[in-house]
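Try it yourself: sequence plus magnesium ion, in.
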Amino acid sequence: MVKAHDESEVVYLGIAASPGIAISPVHVIARGFKAPDVYAIEESLVPHEQARLNEALEQTKKQLIDLQKRLENLTGDNEAAIFEAHVMILEDRNLVNRVMEAIADRQQNAEYAFYAVMQNFLEAMRRIHDPYLRERTADIEDVAQRVLRNFDANDDGRVSGPDDAHLLIAYDLSPSDTASMNRRHVLGFATELGSVNSHTAILARSFGIPAVVGLDGSVIDMVTLTPGILDGYSGKLILHPTAETLARYRKLIEQKEQIRSSLNAKRNAATETIDGRELMLSANIEIVEELPMVKRSGAKGVGLYRTEFLLLNADEMPDELEQAKVYSQVVSELKPHRVIIRTLDAGGDKLPVEPLTDQEPNPFLGWRGIRVSLARPAMFREQIRAILRASAHGKVSVMFPMISGLSEVWRGKEMVKRCMDELEKENIAFDAELPVGVMIEVPAAAICADLLAKEVDFFSIGTNDLIQYTVAVDRVNPHVAELYRPTHPAVIRLIKRTIDAATEHGIWTGICGEVAGDIRLTPLLIGLGIEELSVGPQQVPRVGQAIRSLSYAECAAMSDEALRHPRSQGILDLSMALARKHYADLLD
Ligand code: PEP
Ligand code: MG
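Structure, out:
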């Protein structure tokens, strides 16, 4: 890699969203349009690149003027005026000079320098509150795209680009960006927006990609190809690391690797506390590509399969047979272990589902989860039939998300019954005893857990949502991340209430929210009486070892004290004390 000039080390602080360390050059992307390849140029080629920029700008200008004329002939002046505005953007000396300077200062190819400056400009526009100005970003994007098309991208001398291993740096990444990212090349990512409980962060943890979100610096000032270190343990992005910093991180990677391989050696041991309380340890998955990781992790099946990720590359859910094929693959591969398939939970920060075209003012309080399924019975029926078909291939349970009351459970179960009757008539095999469970993630469900427990076979507590709804803190908003406290007394009381109601009615309770994988809280969760933990595949070995190190009796005594404690921090401290006592080496 060629470095334009020496710089001193810069450390950007953020929120640790997915553990791990990655050392690699950064690649900065922004929204809107695809980044061109980037490569370093020799100083002597700077004038050549600047000339290429001028050519691309001139050519774009000609095309726009031509378009303007053609449109004037067809529709009159008004419509054509838009291209005049586009030409003006290209003539903005300020902007052009900035690209010229970027080519010279960063010694990068003209198209990339142009792209980076435009992204900077666009990002600034997007943050403007004036809706008219914000809308102009689309025009500018349009012009920028034209200019980029007018570069000849097949230049020689390419030394690096997005096809090489890199740290991905972005203003924001959606869950679908993350799910579809090339995991061979993206060694880690950092974003300016985001929070630990966003689905983007959850996916990073599932895939084992180190990630930092909520960076304190502006990513648009960062330069592609800059050497970097991403520290997903303490939430740091370090640019231009010194030799000393590099050596320290290389050592840390080695130490973590040792811990990882010793955990892996024990991954198939029983997940039982030292005094004999057995816990079910399963994995959360989003896409079938995670199956090999699940199998390697030692997880006893899947405690949460987020089926909404089938919408990743599609506008609507695949049909019954396509879904049945995917579910059956998961179920057959994990046999004899159980797979809990959650029905569609689109909405919130996840993939939107038809027919929502407008932005919802409060997506987390709106059209998501079981509400969408019940309002779209044809789609719901296809999914339930597909799940039932898969149940002929192994051990399957179905689970409904976002349950807020009894009638939703009844209606969900009615659909299961209806589909069973249909399949029976059609002579299609399925498990007639298919267990039906619900997510407890809305406070109303936790408060009415005694009513729900009579109707279902199990509870799985979705702490990601339960916390946000209980303390009224948006799980993806970094500005209120400080208030998102899993050990808030209200949250642990709701968890306890849910477990007690389940025990009374003879059903089991698990946790599939991110809290389940946080080993600082394992003593508390075990003490409260949780029977299953479902965590990202990467976290399975660590959580397994934490369970094996603890005594249930000790955890239960601590949890009783925690339930009487008035403060989140105090409750966390109580749990942490046991975690430190029994497995300090596992804590990051
Ligand atoms: C949860 O809310 O805790 C949960 C597991 O569901 P999701 O993160 O998919 O909303
Ligand atoms: Mg949820």
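One thing you can check immediately is this: The first helix runs from residue 46 to 75.
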